[in-house]
Amino acid sequence: EVQPRPKPKKKSKPRPPAEPETPIVEKTNDARVVLVVGDFLASGLAEGLDTAFADNPAVRIVARSNGSSGFVRDDVYNWPAQIKSLIETEKPAVVIVMLGSNDRQQMKVGEVREQPRSENWTKEYERRTDALGKALQETKVPFLWVGMPAFGVSKMNSDMLAFNDIYHSVAQSNGGEFVDVWDGFVDENGAFVTSGPDINGQPVRLRSDDGINVTKAGKRKLAFYTEKPLAKILGLAAPGSITTVSAPAGAPVEAPKPAAAPIIVDRTAPMLLGDPALDGGTELLGAAQPARA
To answer: Looking at the domain assignment, is residue 251 inside a domain?
Structure first.
């Protein structure tokens, strides 16, 4: 009998190369603490910063986020009331705030439930955000306020842009700095993107299927925008600044240095060919005594 030939084995697809692991170093006892507070996006930002500063023993990232918190439901968690005790406990060198993704909902103002972004809703929202800004200013700890990114739900984005205007104003009026991450999560037309360039300019998936949560690469990109102002406050070089890394799309670009002043060239006055006073023609060649060796 003729034996059936064995079926050829399917060739397995080559696996993509694994990401190089960031070397993790043990933090020193006197490492400076960066306290990250806010909602679930703040938690992702803290993860990204943890990766960015993994090889720096002098900086420790501490996340004290509450995923479902915001300014609207202060009955769930009241950030203006809690921030001072958090700062007293953690003793941070810098505080980073990222809040607002849960705030597109009705807010109880007095006995009335106000609709999102109505006049009374907005006034109360501004008051609550400013209360956090004032509480941070009173602690005298430098702070960064990171804005909201774009989301896959188009109805959310106009609200998030309005929220960012409020956060920007509150940060500036209370001595903080606003960090705008919007351009890192939209295309050149300003539309939300699920995938885009990572911190090295390579195309990656930045957001999950729901258009709200961020991937590992997205968390790292959130951190990228925060690294430079954070390093400035800490008096450090930004992570990865020694090597040349192409900035992701939408990253803030430094203004070019002014050009050096033009060198002024003095022009020699025109000389007549027959003018012996200007070409040394009054002296005969060989008239001078030769110098002794």
So the answer is: no
**Per-residue pLDDT reduced to its tens digit, 113-137:** 999 999 999 999 999 999 999 999 9
Three-state DSSP class for residue 132? helix
> Which two tokens mark 136?
């941070």
CA 211 to chain centre: 20
Domain for residue 27, yes or no?
A: no
pTM for the model: 0.76
Residue 49 has pLDDT above 80, yes or no: yes
Tell me how far apart the alpha carbons of residues 161 and 185 are, in angstroms, rounded to a whole number: 13
Total count of residues recorded for the chain: 293
Question: pLDDT tens for residues 164-201?
Answer: 999 999 999 999 999 999 999 999 999 999 999 999 99
Residue with tokens 């918190």: 69
Domain that holds residue 157: 32-234
CA pair distance 216, 209, nearest whole angstrom: 14
Per-residue confidence (pLDDT) for residue 275, from 0 to 100: 52
Task: Judge whether 272 lies within some domain.
Answer: no
Residue 40 lies in a domain: yes
What are the percentages of helix, strand and coil residues in the chain, rounded to 5?
Answer: 30, 15, 55
Domains in the chain: how many in total? 1
As a three-state string, the secondary structure of 215-267 is CHHHHHHHHHHHHHHHHHHHCCCCCCCCCCCCCCCCCCCCCCCCCCCCCCCCC
- Smallest Cα–Cα separation from 128: which of 107, 154, 98, 158? 107
Distance CA 60, CA 246 (A): 26
CATH number, residue 153: 3.40.50.1110
